[in-house]
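Worked example 3 (structure in, sequence out).
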């Protein structure tokens, strides 16, 4: 990874930690029962973890992803707005697909769903707006990624499926993905165990789903996931002394 890319990512992480530390330091809430049971240090550490999770949310993930994509020579934007022109029959088919998935009347299958939507080629066309969390262009290939929390709810997941199908209906050459920046179930795709989005996507087999290493290596190239973990560890070493002072 390039030095300037690494430095930019480290700055983002330091900002997230600084914001989390500031929030915890000004929180003077007295928790006598928590501290008696868990110790003050553990209670403070727990408060910091929650605060850091708030700081290290959607925005930093998108920004780090954009930095990594650009470092590979690609063009990249966050919150990319795309006006798509889609066959009216395809729009209605997308609604039918989502309704059947939501009700449990059908099982997710990305390849079959694409084929159904792309079969509509005659009739009127309508315009729709799609907002993608991350857009990457390498050469003539455009990639659109909806980045969600690693445990998305059903409504968020349904919106992602709709957006991906609308983009495909507009241009079947578009690469479209649901991206989760880590896998809460384990190292492998098959370990993903949050059941909610599985009503809308086949989280194990759909090739439009990127989880953890798959996501980062697509954005920044092979080895990016491991390199990122190393950077996080390095920033952790630099800030550990500050964190150890919490609760004293």
């Amino acid at each position: 990874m390039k030095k300037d890319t690494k430095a930019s990512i480290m700055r983002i992480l330091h900002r997230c930690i600084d914001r989390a530390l500031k929030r915890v330091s000004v929180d003077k809430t007295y928790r006598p029962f928590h501290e008696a049971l868990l110790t003050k240090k553990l209670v403070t550490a727990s408060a910091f973890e929650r605060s850091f999770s708030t700081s290290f949310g959607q925005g930093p993930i998108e920004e780090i992803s954009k930095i990594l994509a650009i470092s590979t020579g690609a063009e990249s934007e966050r919150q990319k707005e795309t006006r798509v022109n889609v066959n009216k029959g395809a729009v209605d088919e997308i609604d039918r697909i989502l309704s059947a998935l939501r009700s449990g009347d059908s099982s997710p299958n990305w390849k079959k769903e694409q084929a159904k939507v792309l079969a509509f080629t005659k009739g009127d066309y309508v315009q729709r707006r799609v907002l993608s969390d991350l857009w990457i262009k390498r050469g003539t290939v455009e990639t659109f990624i909806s980045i969600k929390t690693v445990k998305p709810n059903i409504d968020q997941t349904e919106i992602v499926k709709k957006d991906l199908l609308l983009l495909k209906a507009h241009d079947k050459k578009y690469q479209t993905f649901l991206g989760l920046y880590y896998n809460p179930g384990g190292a492998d795709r098959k370990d993903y165990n949050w059941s909610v989005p599985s009503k809308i996507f086949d989280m194990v087999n759909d090739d439009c789903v990127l989880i953890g290493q798959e996501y980062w290596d697509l954005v920044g190239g092979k080895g990016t996931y491991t390199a990122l973990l190393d950077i996080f560890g390095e920033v952790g070493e630099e800030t550990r002394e500050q964190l150890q002072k919490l609760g004293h």
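Notes: Residues 73-220 form one domain. The chain is about 55% helix and 20% strand.
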